[in-house]
Amino acid sequence: MNSRRHFSSLFSILFATAASTGAPTLRGHAAEPGLATHAAVASPSQVQAVSFRAALSHTAYTQSAPTQLLFKVEFSGADRRPSNRPPLNLALVLDRSTSMSADMKFPHALAAARAVIENLTDRDTISLIAFNERTLVLSPAGRVVNKSFLFQRLAEVTPDGITDLSAGLLEGIAQVSSQNAEGQVKHVLLLTDGKANSGIMDSPALRTIAETAHAKGVGLSTLACGTDFDERLLTDLATAGGGRYSYVKSSEQLPTAFKEELRGLLEVVAQNVRLEVVVTQSGIISKVYGQPWQQTSPSFQLQIGNLRAGERGSVMLAIKPGDFKPDSALEVTAKLTYDAPETSERVVRTATARAMFAAAGSEFMVEENEEVILCGAVMDAMDLAMNALQGFDLDRYTNARANFDQWHGRVREYALIHRNQDLLNEAFLLKHFMEELQAIRGPGAPPLLSDTQSQLEKQRDYQSYQLLHHPLTQNQ
C-alpha cells in the first residue's frame, strides 16, 4: 500500500476527538469571521437542507505573490432530526478471522453488537453474520423480539481462520434483502481488522457489489480496527454503499462507533452528494488537500455520498493563476449536487469566487482571507509532519518542526480571538501529532516500530476521510 496515498492535512476533525484529548473548549457566542463575510466569498446557499459556501484566500494576485491561491469549499447538513424514526433493517457482519483474537478485538466487537441490539425495538429487523473464509449466520433476518437469544448466539462464536470479506458482505446484503419492507432504513454494518485474502479480493469487484446493493436500497458502512486493514478499500466500499467508514484506534471504542453509526443512519438530509470545482477563468488546480492529485487540471470532481443532519465537510484546493495581463482575473466555481430525500428532487447549488490580477503600479489592494490562509497553513504543516514520519533523516523532522513553530501560535491565537472552535481543534491536534512525532523521529528517538508507524498512518488516513464527514462544532 502506498501509505502517502491519502495523507492530507488536518482541518475540521471531530470535535469529540479533540475534546477527549484535552483541547480547550470555547465559551460564549461571539461571531466568527466565517467565509460568507469576506470579499472573496460567494453567497451562502439558501437551501434549508444543505448550507454551501466557498472562498478564495486572496481578493487579488500579482506577478509574484501569491504564487498560488487557496480555494476552500464548505458544506453542512441542517441540524434537524426526525421526530419519529423509521424502522431499521440491519445486518451486523463481524470479521471472526484469527487476527480478531488479538488485543481483545473480538470481545469488544461482540460488545458493540450487543450495544446495537440493545438500542433496537420490535419494530426493527436484524441479522447477525460472522465470517472468516466462510459465513456463519448466527441469526437470520427477523424482528427484534428476543434479545436474549441474539446475545446467546453472539456468545457462541469464536475467532478462527482467514478473511473472506466478500462472503460476509454478500450474506449481509442477502439477509437485509430477504426482509425488505416499505419505509425501512436498510443497511449493512461490516467490521473487519484485516485485508481480504480469500474469495473476491479485487477492489473494483467489491465496490460493484456495494454499488449494486445501494442502487437497490441497501446501504453499507464499514468499521475498522487494528493496523493491517485496507483503508482505501473500506473507504471506497462505504462511499459506494452510501454509508460511512469509521476507524477506531482501540477496539474498546467499537461499541461507541457502532452506536454513532446507528444514530447517523436515521438522519440523512442529502443523498448522492457530489462536488465539482472548475477554474472557469485563468488558472489550474495544482493540489487537492486530502485527495490523490498528480495532475494539473482546471477541474476536480468528488463523490461525497450521503450527508447527515448536523454533519459538515470541507475541501481545500490550491489554484495556480495563469493570466497576468491587465484586467485579467482568476475565477473558480464550485457546484454541489444532491438528492433531497423528502422531495426526491435533484438540487444543484453553485458558488463562485473571483480574484483580480493586480498589475505593478495599480491601486488595487490585495486583501487576505486569514481563516482560509491559516487552514491551509495547518494542512501544509501536517503534510510536512507526515513526510517526516515516512522519512528516516533528522532534516525532515527539523523542517516539520520549524514549520510548526512558525504557524501554530498564530493559528491558535486567531482561533481564540475569533472563537473558531474548528480551527482551535486543528491547532491542538497538530500540536498533539508533533509531540508524537518528536517522540519517534526527534533527536535521540529510538528506532520506530512498524506497528507504531502503521497506526499513525491509519489515524491520519481516517482524519483525511473525516474532512468530508464530521459533526458540526458548536461553541458552548
Descriptive notes:
The protein has 476 residues and is an alpha/beta fold. It has three domains: 1-38 and 369-476, no CATH class; 43-80 and 270-360, Sandwich (Immunoglobulin-like); 88-266, von Willebrand factor, type A domain (Rossmann fold). The protein has helices at residues 15-20, 105-118, 147-155, 165-178, 203-215, 231-240, 254-265, 370-390, 394-417, 421-441, 450-465, and strands spanning 50-56, 60-61, 69-77, 88-95, 125-131, 135-143, 185-192, 218-225, 242-248, 268-281, 283-288, 299-308, 311-321, 329-340, 345-357, 470-471. A six-stranded mixed beta sheet has the order 6-5-4-7-8-9, sandwiched between helices. Strand 5 and strand 6 (135-143) form a beta hairpin. The longest helix has 24 residues, at 394-417. It is globular and about 80 Å long. The model is unreliable at 1-21, 27-47 and 472-476 (pLDDT under 50).
CATH topology of the largest domain: Rossmann fold
Helix content: 25-40%
Number of strands: 16
| Global outline | globular
- Runs in which pLDDT lies below 50 for 5 or more consecutive residues are 1-21, 27-47, 472-476
Q: How many helix segments?
A: 11
CATH superfamily of the largest domain: von Willebrand factor, type A domain
Cα gyration radius (Å): 23 Å
Strand content: 25-35%
CATH class of the largest domain: Alpha Beta
Can you tell me the number of structural domains? 3
Content-based structural category: alpha/beta
**Gap between N and C termini:** 41 Å
The CATH architecture category of the largest domain equals 3-Layer(aba) Sandwich
Element-by-element helix/strand order: HEEEEHEEHHEHEHEHEEEEEEHHHHE
Query: Can you list the strand order of the major beta sheet?
Result: 6-5-4-7-8-9
Largest β-sheet summary: 6 strands, mixed
Mean pLDDT: 81
